[in-house]
Write a structure and sequence with these properties.
Low-confidence stretches: 1-62
Organism: Digitaria exilis
Keywords: FAD, Flavoprotein, Oxidoreductase
Mean pLDDT: 85
Structural class: alpha/beta
Order of helices and strands: HHHEHEEHEHEHEHEEEEHEEEEHEEEH
Strand content: 15-25%
Helix content: 25-40%
CATH class of the largest domain: Alpha Beta
Number of strands: 17
Number of helices: 11
Shape: elongated
Cofactor: FAD
CATH topology of the largest domain: FAD/NAD(P)-binding domain
Oligomer: single chain
Bound molecules: flavin-adenine dinucleotide
Protein name: FAD dependent oxidoreductase domain-containing protein
Pfam families: DAO
Distance between the termini: 34 Å
Radius of gyration: 22 Å
Number of domains: 2
Largest sheet: 9 strands, mixed
Length: 460
């Protein structure tokens, strides 16, 4: 959105409310005692949504006809697909470029399940999850598809583990007798706490969700191109700003704004196009499916009310979704994995000791119900994009690009559920100079000696 449009917005009541909230956000740290961080996030998001609903989208393209597109999104995982949908929904002429086939399995958004849960030790995330649930529901309604299966959410861990206590508190979870409730599926040690929020969990069908947002983006007028690897992003010529995006096939597109959502490739691409070092480390990890012991298959199924769960036990953070997409099997995974080069992964043995860690956890906590002999039935390689504090990076790239390039990255193994919220924010940042201010997701938090900033257990 050009400056002229922003000036017009300032005279509208909805925009005035939004802009005053933004300046309030800019004036106070997200940790300000006057306005709590979760409230700030939800206020910003809600006001942003309000603005988007209250203000007609038409002016967005008015000043940018000299560019091929208003917004060029690079990378069509869940974040890029949601950002393209959000931008196109506001009337922007949007191009989404993906390096591989659409729905390929080489990044982070493939497979058939991701957890959605509102139990986070860090209180800034549950409001995002709650908004994400609304946006998931909106997209389901708009597309006529179903991608989210709600489930109860179980969080368990040693009573002395601050993260599990905070996560349960932030989710409004209540302590339960897990053994009684789930027929002895879990063996919970003495001194552990187990808390359930009945509506806090769920399983997202990952591939279906990406497909849904791509289809919605196309319906709103976006152009989606696969096998289009972006090799360069340059500053637009002249004083009008904008960007020029080049692919390995020699195609060149101009755009008023660019959104970079390239997952585990972010550090490489951002370094090569902007010379900026981002501490986002690709990790090779795996989606693991384990055989349920005969006779227990239906007990561990989503439709029997079996929960999505997280087990906090430093250094093990193990999580699971109930049996759903592969009947007779249950997905139980470890949060983490060894560093990798996204272009040269060892798909056979690159996962380090992830399998052994999960098998040890199963043998201790679910020995009667899940089989570990022979290892997992299925292993699906995947990548995390890890930041030192496991918080996201959502920011303008700055430097010569100023506010013309915005990136969403470093989702640290817990981003999928937030896709619609992140996509919405990225599109807003690209299209609206009023923007949203999310201090704790900014790149400059890594300046100086913040590489080992404290990390609450973010889990998944
Ligand atoms: C095993 C595993 C389990 C997980 N479980 C959960 C969970 O339960 N809950 C949860 O919320 N999150 C979970 N996550 C995290 C979540 O899946 C990721 O945070 C999310 O998928 C990241 O999406 P993305 O769009 O940023 O990255 P990606 O999906 O990797 O998308 C980036 C895209 O950019 C493309 N690209 C790269 N370079 C270029 C280029 N130069 N030009 C054009 N395109 C390019 C890539 O091909 C890719 O398609 C899990 C992740 C893994 C690996």
């Amino acid at each position: 959105m050009g400056l002229a449009t922003v000036r017009t917005l300032r005279s509208r009541p909805a925009a005035r409310r939004f802009l005053s909230l933004c300046s309030a956000a800019q004036a106070c740290s997200p940790f300000s005692p006057k306005i709590s961080a979760p409230d700030l996030i939800s206020h910003l998001f809600v006001s942003t949504l309000f603005l988007a609903m209250a203000v007609p989208a038409a002016p967005v393209t008015a000043g940018h006809r000299r560019f091929d597109y208003d917004v060029i999104v690079v990378g069509a995982g869940i974040m890029g697909s949601c950002a393209a949908h959000a931008a196109a929904s506001r009337g922007a002429r949007t191009l989404l470029l993906e390096r591989f086939d659409l729905l390929h399995g080489l990044g982070s958004s493939h497979g058939e399940s991701r957890t959605i849960r509102d139990a986070y030790a860090d209180a800034r995330y549950p409001p995002m999850v709650r908004l994400a649930r609304r946006l998931w529901a909106d997209a389901e309604a708009e597309s006529g598809r179903r991608v989210l299966t709600p489930t109860p959410l179980l969080s368990m861990g040693p009573r002395g583990n601050a993260a599990v206590l905070a996560a349960a508190r932030n989710a409004g979870a209540e302590e339960v007798d897990v053994v009684g409730r789930w027929g002895g599926a879990f063996r919970v040690p003495d001194g552990w706490v187990a808390a359930v929020s009945d509506h806090g969990g769920g399983v997202l069908n990952a591939a279906e969700a990406v497909k849904m947002f791509q289809a919605l983006a196309v319906k709103k007028g976006a152009v989606v191109r696969d096998n289009a690897e972006v090799v360069d992003i340059g500053k637009g010529p002249g004083v009008e700003g904008g960007v020029v995006v080049a692919t390995s096939a020699g195609e060149v597109f101009s755009g008023a704004k660019c959104v970079v959502t390239v997952g585990a490739w972010t550090s490489k691409l951002v370094k090569s196009v902007a010379g900026v070092d981002l501490p986002i480390e690709p990790l090779h990890t795996m989606v693991l499916y384990w055989r349920i012991k005969p006779g227990h298959e239906s007990e561990l199924a989503a439709d029997a009310g079996f929960p999505t769960f997280s087990s906090y036990c430093d250094p093990q953070f193990v999580y699971s979704t109930p049996s759903l997409e592969c009947p007779g099997m249950i997905k139980i995974n470890y949060h983490g994995g060894p560093p990798c080069d996204p272009d040269e992964r060892d798909f056979v043995s690159g996962g380090g000791d992830v399998v052994e860690r999960v098998a040890r956890w199963i043998d201790e906590f679910m020995p009667g119900h899940v089989e570990t002999a022979g290892g997992p039935v299925e292993r699906l390689p995947c990548m995390y994009s890890m930041t030192p504090d496991e918080d996201f990076v959502i920011d303008f790239l700055g430097g010569e690009f100023g506010e013309d390039v915005v990136t969403g990255a470093g989702f640290s193994g817990h981003g999928f559920k937030m896709g619609p919220v992140v996509g919405f924010i990225l599109a807003e940042m690209a299209m609206d100079e009023a923007g949203v201010e999310l201090g704790h997701f900014k790149i400059n938090r890594f300046d100086g000696n913040h590489m080992a900033k404290d990390k609450d257990d973010k889990g998944l």
